[in-house]
Amino acid sequence: MPLNSIVNGITRTIETATDVVTSPFSEPVIRLGVTGLSRAGKTVFITSLVANLMDRGRMPQFVPAANGAILSAYLQPQPDDTVPRFPFEDHLSKVTSKTPSWPEGTRRTSELRLSLRVRSSGLLAGVSGPRTIHLDIVDYPGEWLLDLALLDKTYAQWSAETLDRMNYRKSADGFRNTLDQFDATAEFQETALGALSASFADYLEAARQEGYSDLTPGRFLLPGDLEGSPVLTFAPLPDDAPQGRGTYWRECERRFEAYKKQVVKPFFQEHFARIDRQIVLVDVLGAIHNGPRAVEDLRTAMADILSAFRPGRNAWLSRILGGKRVEKILFAATKADHLHHSQHAKLTAITAALLRDAKDRADFAGAETQAMSIAALRATTEDTVDHKGTELDVVRGTLENGRQAAFYPGALPDDPAHLMGPARDRAEQWLDEDYGIMNFSPAPLTLKAGDGPPHIRLDRAAQFLFGDRL
Fold it and tell me: Strands 70-76 and 404-407: what pairing?
């Protein structure tokens, strides 16, 4: 090992140790990761969370706000000059304008620092004034999150799993036809592989539109500057394809490994592995609407994703030694405002069952976990209507076409097993119930001074995630 590498390693260790030892007398930092899959509402969650931490009138279950411990909250430049700033002001103006609209979803990594001036407590209260705690919120595309599960997989494993999933997806018909006509025995040609890779990318986009979650590699959906590069030009091949030198299999395998090394690992090391607290946003209602196979796909995707976390307690000694762990993970089913509150407990129970495999892994490793149903920005009101002599609990809101509508999505089961069973069996549809969804637009807001945007349980989510650190 070169001497400068050894010196740099020792220096980083000393710097880390110094940061930990002096942290009680400096300004602590909480790094909150906001992750989830497409359409789970990450952008809206961050926007509403920050707005409600700055104006805390709607945060009664967030203890530091309720007891007056937070004296003020203000935005500051984020510490990493190489990471784009989360455009909080732009997103907030969209959802609070006279004609509100949803902000665009996450397409790249971004960060936002919110500094909280907090009244000291405990032994330091009598000898020190208020202290500043920084909340660094890290946002990144859910499509990239899926790739973390690839780190422990070979190209052969990923190909077999991907091709197996295609057997249950209509969106895969086009790629399967292309693959059937593809001559894997021929000598590798860039043009032919490019066409196969493009067909595979089209399949991933179609599968996403169809409501599926497990869509790797995620950068095929959001390629950015990597579009057209060899590292994004490969596809899954069956294991009976020729695997010798100069074959398509060997070249795809090489590019798959390059993708993990040059794209996934740097992202993991630079952003994901430094998280203290984590919220995983999940569109459970959307998966239920799309059927048992979409629910099972979401279950397996989240189990794979959580395997990439390093959950556990952030003991001071383990931090000095570089063994940082995620301390708390919240699994949040979003869009709870699409249900009457009488069904929220059922949605939470389904979320806990859906994520049982992933949650058990985190619990076993020592991280504190919880499932919750939330709506970061409430877009509906509740009502009860008469339907053929039966009273139905509904929600009312404005649809994307501007029309007002009352919506009843169907009765969620009391026992989550009634959904999990057909999902694991890969049934084509639910036997007893059809579950609907509607795309509501944000409602026009009239906010009182000191109030943030209306929400459902955002204060409880904040309390679980970082209330103890304030």
Answer: unpaired
pLDDT score at 308: 65
Say whether domain 23-140+276-379+444-469 belongs to CATH 3.30.1340: no
Buried b / exposed e over 376-415, threshold 16 CB at 10 Å, is: bbbbbeeeeeeeeeeeeebbebbeeeeeeebbebbebbee
Three-state SS annotation for the chain:
CCHHHHHHHHHHHHHHHHHHHHHHHCCCEEEEEEEECCCCCHHHHHHHHHHHHHCCCCCCCCHHHHCCCEEEEEEECCCCCCCCECCHHHHHHHHHCCCCCCCCCCCCCEEEEEEEEECCCHHHCCCCCCEEEEEEEEECCHHHHHHHHHHHCCHHHHHHHHHHHHCCCHHHHHHHHHHHCCCCCCCCCHHHHHHHHHHHHHHHHHHHHCCCCCCCCHHHCCCHHHCCCHHHCCCCCCCCCCCCCCCHHHHHHHHHHHHHHHHHHHHHHHCHHHCCEEEEEECHHHHHHHCHHHHHHHHHHHHHHHCCCCECCCCHHHHHCCCCCECEEEEEECCHHHCCHHHHHHHHHHHHHHCHHHHHHHHHCCCEEEEEECECCCCCEEEEEEECCEEEEEEEEEECCCCEEEECCCCCCCCCHHHHHHHHCCCCCCCCCCCCCCCECCCCCCCCCCCCCCCECHHHHHHHHHHHHC
Confidence of residue 134 (pLDDT cuts 50, 70, 90): very high
CB atoms within 10 A of CB 308: 18
pLDDT of residue 57: 96
Q: Which tokens sit at 102?
A: 């949803």
Whole-prediction pTM: 0.86
Work out the mean pLDDT of the chain and round it to a whole number.
86
Q: What pLDDT, on a 0 to 100 scale, did the predictor assign at position 19?
A: 43
Cβ count near 167 (within 10 Å) = 9
- pLDDT band of residue 10 (cuts 50, 70, 90) is very low
Domain ranges of the chain: 23-140+276-379+444-469, 153-267
Classify each residue of 47-58 as buried b or exposed e, where b means 16 or more C-beta atoms within 10 Å of its C-beta.
Answer: bbbbbbbbbbeb
Please name which of 367, 359, 394 lies closest in space to residue 380, comparing C-alpha atoms: 394
pLDDT at residue 223, as a whole number: 86
Q: pLDDT tens digits for 240-287?
A: 888 888 899 999 999 999 999 999 998 888 777 788 898 989 999 999
pLDDT at 324 over 80: no
pLDDT band, very low/low/confident/very high, at 239 (cuts 50, 70, 90):
confident
Question: Does the pLDDT of residue 56 top 70, yes or no?
Answer: yes
